[in-house]
Write a structure and sequence with these properties.
By secondary structure, the protein is an alpha/beta fold. The protein folds into two domains: about 160 residues, Rossmann fold, CATH 3.40.50; about 160 residues, Rossmann fold, CATH 3.40.50.2000. Helix content is about 40%, strand content about 15%. The strands form two sheets. Strands 2-1-3-4-5-6 form a six-stranded parallel β-sheet. A six-stranded parallel β-sheet has the order 9-8-7-10-11-12, sandwiched between helices. Helix 5 crosses helix 9 and helix 8 packs across helix 10.
Length: about 350
């Protein structure tokens, strides 16, 4: 393919760097390594749940990337999560990591802020209409998972193709000894339900440990829960860890525990499998279930502490089973996940 000028559009919440931000950064890196001239276009965006959210979204609509720079046009714009796909360009492709979930699947749940007031419902409808208009302009539509594609179809009536990206460390992750601890890596948000993972640990018959690598707004509550359950000796909050430490943590655990509510995609699932480790998760974990198969490469149970504890005990008692399930997961992701597949699809409109 000829060298192209490509902009990746991605919003940035100040002082936050989660999976979506990492996803966009990895895309820029992969495009550059393929030989394209690529740059990131970003604007700050903070979800407030009020009129400010709409105003911030409309700021993206004012960005016209069709304007030539030094008389050289931008050949392609790849927009990512809301509201970056409101950006203007005649050859715009959207790779949707997620929409503003409070407007859609989280509406009416404990994670959704909208009331039934006229003001709230008018704001919600305005955000839906922005999505429909902006996504209708795209030359091609992709999502980061089947789960995200299903939501887009369910709430907006729009079809999109799931397109998977490898995690940052996929080339470095590797199987290691199946040690004496479970692992969670990621942001500490309520929707990740790490409290359920901690409660499950209390129900186990073994004395296995849970190591939690990451930061986030739910940390203080999780630490308090750990104290209330008298699990300070078994639950360890590691905070931010380096890439090298992440690789070592995955290599040394016997399994990865994931208990999110309806995850979009979940890099942690892929990281676990690239490291050859089984995943214990729940029936409502969302995108995690596109890779985790019950009894094949992990365990999938109802979101109940006792049921999760039973799976943890099973794996903790049988390292040969850990290796068998983890190896199956590693074979799966090495076959299905690559940047070459993703980039071929994303750049097809400029061939």
């Amino acid at each position: 393919m000829a060298r192209r000028r490509i902009c990746v559009a991605a919003p940035q919440v100040p002082f936050l760097r989660g999976g979506a931000e990492l996803h966009a950064e990895l895309l820029v890196k992969a495009l550059a390594e393929q030989g394209h001239e690529v740059d990131m276009v970003t604007l700050p965006y903070t979800w407030t749940g009020d009129r400010s959210s709409l105003e911030q979204a409309l700021a993206w609509r004012m960005v016209d990337l069709a304007v030539e720079v030094n008389r050289v046009p931008t050949d392609l714009v790849i927009a990512t999560k809301f509201p970056s796909y409101l950006v203007r360009h005649p050859n715009k492709v959207a790779w949707i990591f997620h929409q503003q979930r409070e407007v859609y699947d989280l509406h009416g749940t404990a994670f959704g802020p909208f009331s039934q007031s006229v003001e709230d419902q008018s704001l919600r409808q305005a955000l839906v209409e922005l999505d429909l208009h902006a996504l209708g302009e795209a030359r091609a539509l992709f999502t980061n998972s089947s789960n995200t594609a299903d939501r887009l179809h369910r709430y907006c009536g729009i079809e999109a193709r799931p397109l998977y990206a490898p995690p940052k460390l996929y080339e470095d992750l590797h199987p290691g000894p199946y040690g004496d601890y479970l692992l969670y890596v990621g942001r500490l948000d309520r929707i990740k339900r790490i409290d359920l993972a901690i409660e499950a640990l209390r129900e186990t018959t073994s004395s296995t440990e849970l190591r939690i690598a990451g930061r986030g707004p739910h940390l203080a509550e999780l630490q308090q829960l750990t104290q209330e359950l008298d699990l300070q000796d078994r639950v360890h909050f590691l905070g931010f860890v380096s890439d090298e430490e992440v690789v070592d943590l995955y290599a040394g655990c016997f399994a990865v525990l994931l208990t999110p509510h309806d995850e979009d995609y979940g890099f942690t699932t892929l990281e676990a499998f690239f490291a050859g480790k089984p995943v214990v998760t729940t029936e409502d974990a969302g995108g995690v279930l596109e890779f985790v198969e019950e009894g094949i490469n992990g365990f999938v149970v109802p979101p109940e502490a006792a049921r999760l504890a039973g799976c943890i005990d099973t794996l903790d008692d049988d390292r040969a089973l850990c290796e068998k399930l983890g190896s199956a997961g590693r074979d799966l992701v090495r076959e299905r996940i690559s940047w070459s597949i993703a980039l071929e699809a994303l750049t097809a409109t400029v061939d």
